TrEMBL record:
This is non-specific serine/threonine protein kinase. Its EC number is 2.7.11.1. It comes from Dactylonectria macrodidyma. GO terms for cellular component: autophagosome; cytosol; phagophore assembly site membrane. SUPFAM superfamilies: Protein kinase-like (PK-like). The keyword Cytoplasm does not apply.
Amino acid sequence: MGLHHVWYYALETRFPKKGEVVHVCGDHDAPPLLQQRLEGRKRDKRPISVGRKGKVFLQTCTSGRRHYTHRVVKMIRLQDRGTRWRYLGELEAIAKFSHPKYSKYFVKLLGWYERSYWLCFAMQIVPGGDLQTYLIQRSALQEDGSLEITSQVLQGLAFLHTEGFAHRDIKPQNALIQQCPTPIEPGSWWVKLSEFGIGKSPEALTSDASTLISAYDYMAPELHGQESLPSIDYQAADMWALGLMTFWTLTKSRMFSSLGAVYRYEASPDALFPRGSLDDSHVSSDGQALIRSLTKPKPDQRLGSNEAMSHAWVLSSMPSAPMIPAECNEPSVSPSGVRTKDKLPLEKPSWIDVKDKFGDTPLQRAAKDARMAALKQLLEQGENIEI
């Protein structure tokens, strides 16, 4: 995508008084000669949260609103020019995944601006808060709910990883709830990923400990500095964190109680995998298998995001593709220009059709091979067989 696309989200901003901003907005769907619109916003006096990187405030529109009445603004303190460019790199990922193509899975960037030594990101509000806060006040999720959340976070990671990014801070606090079931309105889960500081492309990633800003509980073993690795695969570290997050949503307990427990698990993962906790929570064998595959101590042995999308547990949550009515006879055209009607059969062939064209089915061939092997063994043992 490149940093030049980040400038599309830059907001021309004025600062009339402390805590207030005015954006000069040009409406893309308005006539060219129409006067630009001024949009005023005022932030709350108290921040929503304060971290070592900066502060997060709620802003409310006071005049000139077109779309969002409320938004969240993350203010990052810029120590020097290098810090500025580093966080503009963060904006690259946020801007890219704010495209409508990805909007189901990521919190959307609404714009950014600078003030003195502060870089400010304006983000959409996700109404349900974060998953960590939600579950602290409630019991562990049933397996179907955890599966929905895991599948959605996994799809987001697959998008990130395919585009060459790593998230580097997967944890329940960064899964924001757009929708969740309630006693009055039972329904499905919908979560979105936030916090991309971290979402730098691999070329910008280093093994410097100062860049490791994942929550301690969700850090992969290789991030604890015990392994001598020439480079760290942060995408594999994302998958470890997803495995631990899935475990937590199902059990409300940490998969590892201490760093020492992680080291012991590295030495004997099969014996120390916490199956008992998952059994107590009635987690299926497929669910346990996915967690086990994501939490392999060696990064190169973990499932990648695209591989995990094909796991049996994840596939069980995927909706079926809608059927095209039979009367719709107009063929569709693929990106390659090939008409799908010319390329694909309209009806799934039966096993009888396949046999007529290609001989025995794989199952029939396997059965024949098994019978021949059994007969050969009996003959070698001196048995008299009538055929």
